[in-house]
Amino acid sequence: MSSSSSWSNNRASFNLRDLCDCTKKLKTLTSWTKDNPGRRFEAFPNSMIPKLDCGYFQWVDPKLTPWYRRLLYNVHEKVLAHEEMIEKQKLLVEEMEKELKRYKSKMQKYKDKNKDLNKQLTVHKSRDGKGCCLVLGLVFVLLVMLFYK
């Protein structure tokens, strides 16, 4: 505790801009390495670029015990695995929705085609019915003519 408070006092006594000539603000970031999972630190954004790194780096949080480090790291890995699985499931759902849309479109086309075929069938049935009556009528007339002669 005293080391962090003395560091805070020391930090206030000098200008961090003397360490880094970039115009960016100091950032608090979080480490997710095995040695320092979830441990926050301060650095300038350029510290991630080797040629621009001014070398300023300061831990914000105290170091964890090995047991807590292992626990936090494992939990973090599980969270990442679940997030990855969720993203894959979202992509799968998206793909299935697209496929469902294609099948619905095909089904609508088949329904429309079925409707057209039913109309054609109705027309043919009505024609066949009239044609059948006409043929039967002619046969009847011929039979009557043959028997009444």
Automatic annotation (TrEMBL):
Q: Which domain of life is it from?
A: Eukaryota
Q: Name one Pfam family in it.
A: Zn_ribbon_GRF
Q: Where are the transmembrane segments?
A: 131-148
Supply the alphabetized keyword list: Coiled coil, Membrane, Metal-binding, Transmembrane, Transmembrane helix, Zinc, Zinc-finger
Task: Give all residue intervals belonging to the GRF-type domain.
Answer: 19-61
Keyword Transmembrane helix appears in the UniProt entry:
yes
Q: GO MF terms on file?
A: zinc ion binding
Name of the featured protein = GRF-type domain-containing protein
